[in-house]
Specification:
Layout (H helix, E strand, L loop, with lengths): L5 H18 L6 H11 L7 H16 L3 H11 L27 E4 L9 H16 L3 E6 L9 H13 L6 E4 L4 H13 L3 E4 L3 H10 L10 H12 L9 E4 L14 E5 L13 E3 L1 H11 L4 E5 L3 H14 L5 E5 L3 E2 L6 H9 L14 H7 L3 H11 L7 E2 L1 H12 L4 E3 L1 E3 L2 E6 L4 E6 L9 E6 L2 E4 L1 H6 L5 E4 L3 E9 L2 E6 L10 E2 L6 E9 L3 E2 L2 E2 L4 E9 L10 E4 L3 E7 L4 E5 L2
Parallel strand pairs: 1-2, 2-3, 8-9, 10-11, 12-26, 14-20, 18-21, 22-28
Antiparallel strand pairs: 4-5, 5-6, 6-7, 13-25, 14-17, 15-16, 18-19, 19-20, 22-25, 23-24, 26-27, 27-28
Length: 576
């Protein structure tokens, strides 16, 4: 299609806006729609600004429609796109290989060096699901053998995050409590000549591994290694001066097998062990031994650890330990929202974000503040499953699932941004009854007294012209007499509801200040998103005074949101 055919492009924009809205419970997402358009019409890439304006305008129209109206129009213009919207069948995770009822043991193995994120919830739910499905056991194991990285608050953050997800565990432990056991096993390897102590500088060790060159210490006698071992424990060596290395294969194609470090000195106080230990096991040595101590039968983890699995299996084989079954899946990432501690810490320190619970992040505290519920993450996990592809989840998918799940539980309220007063002539005072939820009449209504003045959103007021008729939702019809800098004056125009009429939400004179915060992705590709946060100030209806912190609501025509602050001013984080 030529780019000179604006009507044809408008039709493409319309059909994909409708399809996305129907797919995600009535609310289309601009980025997802643009992606579909560009796939069909790559010729419009050079007119990105005009396309974005057209998409935004179309989505505003489509999102104002009911889901049934959207579905009916989509049926007429592109019925083939309705194939995605048949009755949903809940997905379940597949059967677990080698699982025996009552004997499955899985683990939650977080390093308490930051706050948990959606990837931890994804892997955590998988491990929890299989432990419960097979009536087995789940171990919460804090892998805290790097005292420089761990902090007490992070232990609590993981406990809180897992509990919020509805994940419970049968046993909790800290790997740092088992240091004496690691010492015993390391001494055993030194005695057998399967490990050695190395005093080479770190850069030389790295160079030797890269080139596949053995270290001279590799040929040290077991007696010499054991004497040095005792010297380490007596404090005669300091950080960076000596490491315990496993005898692997310096020519191995997998670099982690080239005489890896098993223990190293870290001179830093541990939040629970204090200064009791100076010699700490590396991740692979600790994991291999701890999985045996915990009786883990199935290791269910993201495939970022795939290269290390061979080393951990080798360590277990040296001690004659049974090998657990390993099921790997791809790490879950959310487009535009970093989850890595290395990425988030600078954002916190530079105050680009407010903290680890910033609602633009995919940390569990951030998701919770945004109004994402645990069931959304669970359903997302079941949808993705044990995929080995690299899933980068668009926010529109998370928000679409969340909207569908919170819709039945979220009561409706009115709020207007940058409010404009509307004076109504000819209407009797009345108490309007606004339903809390259109599909659940048993929840009742909230009463709003109206004399002769209400407030509407400035965006709605700008669209009005003299002579326009519209309906104040759940109240009555009015007609515009005049507009001025001081507001809009209207005349009462009857009670009858006309489905074709413009409907505008409003708040009465008994109201309270509200602040609506609309988050977006932090990054667009590699670049920071300058529009990742938008704030609207306005008025909310009086019934919002009764809302409690964390309540999930729907502000009509604005979207779902979570109450972030109550009191004289209500702050709502808009979920989307």
């Amino acid at each position: 299609m030529p780019t000179s055919d604006p009507s044809a492009l408008a039709q493409v924009v319309r059909k994909y806006s409708l399809a996305n809205a129907v797919k995600y419970d009535g609310k289309a997402d601009a980025r997802a729609v643009i992606g579909k358009i560009l796939a069909e019409r790559p010729d419009v890439r050079q007119k990105a600004r005009e396309l974005i304006e057209l998409v935004n305008a179309t989505i505003e129209e489509v999102n104002a429609m009911s889901v049934e109206e959207q579905r009916q129009e989509l049926q007429g213009v592109a019925p083939q796109l309705l194939e995605y919207h048949h009755e949903r069948r809940a997905k379940e995770l597949p059967a677990l290989g080698g699982a025996t009822m009552g004997r499955v043991v899985t683990r939650l193995p977080p390093e308490p060096s930051g706050y948990p994120h959606i990837g931890h919830a994804y892997a955590g739910y998988i491990n929890w699901f299989y432990a419960r499905h097979y009536r087995g056991r789940l171990v919460l194991r804090f892998e805290d053998t790097n005292p420089r990285a761990v902090r007490k608050e992070y232990y609590d953050a993981f406990r809180d995050g897992y509990r919020w997800m509805g994940i419970d565990w049968d046993k909790e432990l800290k790997v740092s409590d088992d240091i004496p056991y690691f010492y015993e096993r390391a001494r055993e390897l030194l005695q057998k000549g399967q490990a050695y102590l190395c005093t080479c500088p770190e850069n030389e060790i790295k160079k030797g591994r890269r080139l596949g060159i053995e270290c001279s210490h590799r040929r040290s006698a077991a007696e010499d290694n054991l004497a040095r071992w005792d010297d380490i424990l007596e404090g005669k060596y300091h950080e960076g001066e000596i490491v315990c290395r496993l005898k692997g294969d310096m020519k191995h194609p997998n670099a982690v097998m080239r005489d890896p470090n098993m223990l190293r000195i870290i001179e830093h106080r541990h939040p629970f062990q204090g200064d009791r230990y100076r010699l700490w096991p590396t991740y692979d040595f600790a994991v291999a031994l701890e999985d045996h101590l915990c009786g883990i039968t199935h290791i269910l983890r993201s495939n970022e650890f795939a290269s290390r699995g061979e080393l951990q299996a080798f360590i277990r084989s040296l001690f004659g330990f049974p090998q657990p079954r390993i099921q790997e899946f791809s790490r879950l990432n959310v487009e535009g929202s970093p989850v890595s501690k290395r990425q988030i810490r600078p954002l916190v320190q530079s105050k680009i974000i407010s903290g680890w619970d910033d609602f633009r992040l995919a940390t569990l505290t951030g998701l919770r503040r945004r109004g994402i519920i645990p069931e959304t993450i669970k359903e997302l996990t079941r949808e993705v499953g044990l995929s080995v592809a690299q899933p980068v989840i668009d926010w529109s998918i998370i928000l679409g699932i969340n909207r569908r799940l919170v819709d039945p539980m979220a009561n409706r309220y009115f709020a207007v941004a940058d409010p404009v007063p509307v004076t109504i002539i000819g209407a009797d005072p009345r108490d309007a009854q606004l339903p809390f939820h259109p599909d659940f009449q048993d929840r009742g209504t909230r009463g709003v007294h109206v004399d002769s003045r209400v407030f509407i959103d400035s965006a709605d007021a700008k669209q009005l012209k003299q002579g326009d008729a519209f309906r104040l939702k759940h109240l009555y019809n009015v007609r515009v007499d005049k507009k001025s800098a001081r507001g809009v004056t209207c005349s009462y125009a009857g009670e009858e509801v006309d489905k074709t009429e413009t409907k505008i939400q409003w708040v009465g004179e008994d109201n309270l200040p509200v602040q609506l915060t609309f988050p977006d992705v932090l990054y667009l590709g590699e670049q920071p998103n300058p529009h990742s946060l938008r704030v609207e100030n306005g008025l909310g209806e009086a019934a919002m005074r009764a809302l409690k912190l964390d309540a999930i609501i729907q502000l009509e025509r604005k979207g779902f949101g979570r109450i972030d602050r109550t009191g004289d001013q209500v702050i709502v984080i808009m979920t989307g």
